[in-house]
Batch of 3 targets.
Target 1
Amino acid sequence: MPKISSSIVLLGLLPALSIAQDTTNIREVIINQNRLQIPFSKDNRNIEILTAAQIKQLPVKNVNEALGLLNGVDLRQRGPFGTQADVSIDGGSFDQTLVLINGAKVSDPQTGHHNLNLPIPLDAIERIEVLRGPAARIYGVNGLTGAINIITKTITQTGVQANVYTGSSFKNRDEEQKNGVYYHAGTQLGVSWHQKEHQHQLFYAKDKSNGQRYNTASNAEKLYYQGNLDIDSRNSVTWLGSYLYNSFGANGFYAAPGDKESQEIVETVFGSLSSKHQLSERFYLSPRISNRYNEDDYRYYRHDLSKARSRHYNNSLSLEVNSRLQTSIGDIGVGIESRLERINSSNMGDHKRDNHGAYAEFRTEQIQNLDLNIGAYVNYNSQYGWQIYPGFDLGYALSDQWKIVVNAGSSQRIPTFTDLYLNQRPGNIGNPNLLSEDAWQAEGAIKFQNEHIIGHMGYFHRRIRNFIDWVRADANEPYQPFNMGKNQVNGIHMNLLYHLQVQEIRYGINVGYNYLEPTIKQAEELTSKYQLENLKHQTKLLLTAQHNNWTLGLTNRFNQRISDKSYLLMDARFGLEFQAVSVYADAQNLFDVTYIESAAIPMPGRWYSVGVKYRWKKNG
């Protein structure tokens, strides 16, 4: 159990109040699982939701910062303000987490380093759903330890909105004392057009920073469009398109200390087209096609592009059909999907592979006090052949408020093209002989909920077979991935969400804690990239207070890795609401903590920022 001093515990409990939100609204959220429609209050998995209302009140300005506030999520940034980050769940690696937008896969087949190249500004997000544990039965392969599903907004009014912000530490940049203070600035602009039969929304976002350290300046632009067509009460169509451009100095990001002059430019295009059809009173059908294209231009010497330059172009085309049938004994969900992946790379070569899957689920509440969900996913990969991934979850209601849940499942992670074919000597090389990873996990938990409280406490055990880790036996050798055998993790997780109304002020509490005990079976003489840095203790304690025209939000996070590196961070936001304009001020890293989340890259110290939002909505 955690070795945390009493002073740290006290500091953690002081701001242990969170997201002021009506818990009733969260219970009514329908989890976006593509097939079966399950309210959050009835789901028997470990799922956490971050809504648009919560995001608005907290000191975050991009998806990366928002994800860092969720239990079980390990966000390891190489640069602040969304520049570059890896995300993992419950002690897994960044390649073992599946990322989706509205249920469509956007994970990158080249490398998990690009999974958060998301062209979605915060103002376009309705909520973020995090599913912890193997996700094959729900979303297919590559969700080995969990999945993050970003749900975008559906507009209800014609309007215009703008969000402009800027910030600084008011300190000179490291290593460049004569070149002024480190700053960050950004804007998000949106327009929406709402008609009875069709709705459209368009967002543009831009973020820019001059860099905290030498050669870490960044420049990112995002463009996002979504349209909806309501054909009639039983048929609708939704389409979206997005584009991301992200250029940043990558000093120390991947190959320190030799990469001081490196730069990376990433461009990502994602689009999807889906429709929903209520073919009868009991039968529902939803086909979808989506495509993700990514360009990655890594320049080891930014001033000399004739050497050590890596250019990668990959494309993933996905096609799927999901369906749901309601019967007298329960709901049945079935579907099929295909994902076609291609890469053309200057140092990996040209490769392609196809993935085809079919799945079925059955959910029933016909047994008294018991609800059961059972299913399986059958997968064929052109490189790794056939596999099947079953799973189940069940909940037993002890009373109207208390519920015991048990779930177990399995999943697969196909090695990335980087795992297999990378050739970046002397730093890293791939291994074309890798096997796919397979995971099995079981969890037991108890849940409590009433008008004001939602609580969840549980234990899980996970075993990964053919676990892939990047290792080396000598510091003069490159890192290379190998199947290291078994990776076992035992974990304890707890979360409590509470809200309270006192006269005209609404308060909320969200207290979360996770403890992980990983065991990796491998030779002691090997140096592992993974084993040194995964989380062991994680505490997330958040607070908001909301009045008619003002909000106050505090976030408190304590992370300790198995290498014993630990840090405690506190951020704050104060906001004022007027008729069409709101203003907010953020203070991040209030204790001015020196900390590192990834590699050897120090994150910013105390940071201040201010922002102004304008929103106009058409009446009627």
Note: The domain at 23-617 is CATH 2.40.170.20 (Maltoporin; Chain A).
Target 2
Amino acid sequence: MRLVDVIRGESFLEDSFIRWVLTAAASAGIASHVTGQHPVTVGDRRYRLDFLLAGSRLRVAVELDGFAYHSSRASFIYDRIRQNDLAGLGYVVLRFSYEAIRDDTSRCVAQLQTVLRSDPALASYLIADPIVAVPDDMMPNPLGLITAPRRPSAAPADYFDLVRQRLDMRPLRECQREAMIALANYYRRGGLNAACVLSVGAGKTALGVAAALAFTRRRVLIVTPGRVIRGTFATALDPDSAGNTLYTLPEGPLIPGCRPPRTVVLDSDDEPIRAVSRDTLLAADVIVTNFHSLGTGIEGGLLGKLGPDDIDLIVVDEAHIAAADSYQRLFAHFSLARRLLMSACFSRADGKRIEADVVYRYRLIDSIADGHAKHVRIRRFSPRVEQTEYELVWPDGTREQIVGKDALLEVMQDERKLARVTATSEEPIHRVMQIVRRSLDHQATALSPVRPRALFAAIGQRHAEQISRIANAHGIACATLHHSMSDSAIAATRARFEAESGNLQAIVQLRMLGQGYDLPPISVVVPVRPYGSFGEFYQFLGRGIRVIHHPALASRGEKQQLHVVHHGELGLDQHLETLRVENDMDPHPTDADDFGDAPTPDASVARTGSGAAVGRPNTVVLTEQGDIHQQFLHDINRVEARREEREMHAFAQRYAVYVASTPNPRPFEDFVAVIRATHG
């Protein structure tokens, strides 16, 4: 039993007293003597004690004073009348302020122990020679001395000045808080061009919103690569949307006591930028757009409507595309604005340089260790053939053979050819599909009641149709998704796939559901095509990496897995190894559970009206000779070792503060043991 688990306060300050003072001073058994919000009546006055510690002789009233509520003249007078009334009833009154608990924790613990020691019942719970850790969460805004961009001294306070006073980073994930502190240190030193390398699933959207609120003075511009991510940021900043980042994070609001920022969301497909006035843009605190709306700075686009001083912070999501000309024009136009470039991977297929200073890095293995990403299980079919063959079929019936990965990558640069590629032999696809079928069955059991989905990536439209047909033959209800479909057909197909009540278990997509697409129930990803770019490959895998947050799965987070099923001849092993070691992730600095592989049993196939198959196939599938290898991208032992490394690093940082503030510190091992036992 831990005191922090059995005694809860009604405010942050009360919780801090329990965690940092009482827990250090006494063992958990004292909980039976502690009452929160204890009522006391003195004549016609009624009081509530923050905490009463009742012993055999003493009644100790603990009063906690936050400066905001005890700094006025009226409060000064009231507090003394109240304390005198309590003293008249025989209470021993101890008062602890917010600043005392935060800045002089050891003295607070010593004062509490001195009083409790005079009561035999309470004294029996005191801890001899206590280890008193310095609080690490006492400041609602751990950034402390966060600074805005340089501004005229006579300039009046504005919206972002208020936000910086109220910003509460406790609702953010630990990795997001660490990134915010790293950014604050970087910008405070005068840096302008920061990059955060964050694994898929780490929460780049929440970090982008928090950074926009913390590091902006006048106006922030958030630039995304397309409509999907633009919509994600629009939702995050919309106070009327469930799941917004401003107020509805699981641990509480990000900006309590503040209005939401005035946000203008622009999309060249929905509302032409030429129809938006400069006055509308200048009235906004936050502008969200995609790079299509930027323009050249001459006329029509965003850069033509805003001057160089109108934006002082630029946040770029999926910043691996920031080497593009449109982004470079953006940075040149707002040359003095701070920048935050966020991406899971900064490598590009075209080799263009992306310049930025990496101030924070959060790797995939860290995201897995912290429970934000699924464990990644690789299932590789290794055929006993030399090379895979593909075929182009032209409208006049002419056929063209494509042999091997390199030839296929070359063809994939030609959109005319791409749509007509099919696999000459379907046996490899059948073999891969058998693995996919068993992976989905395994996931259906592990994730129940959530329905797992599979996402395929094909070469072209004919290839996608070929894969979808074979998937349905294996009992996987599957459809295709490509840009030649109408908007209504795309929306209907996505609804059938994404909704829990939908009837599609898989989709074969052609560069549709890429960066920013977020559907955590995707638990099997199947690249049925080669990737020349590691970044593009990582983005595809990222669609299934996020953990599924569902009440029924809360105790099964460690078992959530992403199965990556691939054909060995597609040459993806190098990309997987790069992801394993994560050594190809940076921009250039500006300064220089096991299951078998038995064959799928035959059964009857039931067809729906849409043509999707349900159940097992009753056809005999020719099996290509080959072997199936499976392994975790980061095995369990490595994830646990990485978690231990990061935990011990955090302990070392806290121990250094403890040693600096304690005349006779205990050994590091004792410190770690106490903090683990008392705080978890």
Note: The chain has three domains: 3-134+671-679, 159-362, 375-634.
Target 3
Amino acid sequence: MSWTVADAVNYKGLPADRTKTGGWMPAALVLGIEINERLSTMGIAVNLVTYLGGTMHLPSAASANIVTDFMGTAFLLSLLGGFLADSFLGRYKTIAIFALIQALGTGMLTVTTGMPQLRPPTCHPHDKYCEPANGFQMGILYLALYLIALGTGGLKSSVSGFGTDQFDEKDEKEKSQMAYFFNRFFIFISIGTLTAVTVLVYVQDEVGRSWAYGICCISMVIAIIIFFAGTKRYRYKRSSGSPIVQIFQVILAATRKRKMDVPYDVGMLYEMNPDGSRIQHTDQFRCLDKAAIVAQGDFEDHDLNPNPWKLCTVTRVEEVKMMARLIPIWATTILFWTNYAQMITFSVEQAATMERNVGKFKIPAGSLTVFFVSAILITLIIYDRFIMPLWQKLKGKPGFTSLQKIAIGLVLSTMGMGIAALVEMKRLSVAKSTGRNISTLPISVFYLIPQFFLVGAGEGFIYTGQLDFFITQSPKGMKTMSTGLFLTTLALGFFVSSFLVSIIKKVTGSNGGHDWLADNINYGRLDCFYGLLAILGVINFVLYLFCATWFKPRKAKSAINMETINNGNVVEDKC
């Protein structure tokens, strides 16, 4: 094995020495950035709805939409971060710039929540009217939140990719280490979330939000300093250009030749890639094959290389086809994250109205999501230690395929919404019998555990299934983009939640002066909203089954290895 890594360079731009760069130590520094990003983002998101309602005096539905729009924007901006990393900055600079933006946004939020001038007057329980935050106060809050969203989006698109850059896939030992990196990456995400929903939420409620957000800001600054300390130890991969540009080249070339007929012999289509890096031609999306038809004017000035906007290789066309095949699966996973959004919005509002005392200790409403995160960790442990070995004995395969994991996640989240509807019916009956205006209803908050646990267990399956699916079924040069595509399902899930909330408030009209999502949820019909999500989940799952059946995984002879990470071992993904 060579002392240098073939496709990587060091910080000086020279071939990377495998003995001095890469490996677990630099990868761990990258994980440090991710755990602090997760700590900040989730620490803000899970308890933001109570701040907006209790301190800024905003209506219930408006508070929920602000939270889901904030989270949706953060994940949607991952596409921007991926584009900048692939086209201009590279992953290292992208992480550095957006981590600084995240720290700036968190620092601004610390100041915003600490200054009385940026909050409306305090509202007492006996007050009939509470003055809501004015436009200036909300504007400053929005600026802080969306700086954080920008930082989060830029980081998420590059952190996992830069971490895997520290391992050489051509070295068997490092390839095995990279497998463990994926497992530990998700564990670090879960640890960050667990810390956010326990320690950080407690500090927000009992000590002060400014103190909690200040901790996030300081921890992010420390993580950035540590990240910079590893500059000389990192391996850097050269950018191969923006995959978005490559996709548009194929689409434009095919559009220009839309009136031409694809030759019967596909061997006549243009292909210049070496045999070892070619992707076999497939019959799906044959309209894109026209981009590989050689026509007059494709070569300019006797140049051996064609104009990429006029003529593309079969391999480039097949890469675009591979991305197109992901879209149906992508679309049918969005609703899961809509259900997920309810766990950090309306479910937290439910918890705020219920009995939360355990002895003398009162559980913060936002900390109920600890059961959500615990479900994820428990699911992963049970899957790794029990389900995978059992499945190996019964089926001869090391665990479920990526598509099977996604299916399980969709089923569990739909069940979670069904249970949530039943629990809310119980909570509303208690509110009706004891009084809708009392601050704490005589019903235990632990009734909410099943919905948190089911949706959390669903995330344990669907997150790893989606990540596996989008990475293994995408072209090698488009993995950053496919990761961004995966993250957009989270973004759109939150946006769909905001859209549904707005529609429901308009359509349901008045119910004795209150709609389904009334400002005081004790007067609403949140159970009907949860029931609607459960019905939509059933319909979505049927559509997913059709899409999963239609999907054709990459052929085993494809130039790009179809591998997925499972329990630290590299195995072939049969889907």
Note: The chain has three domains: 1-239, 243-322, 326-575.
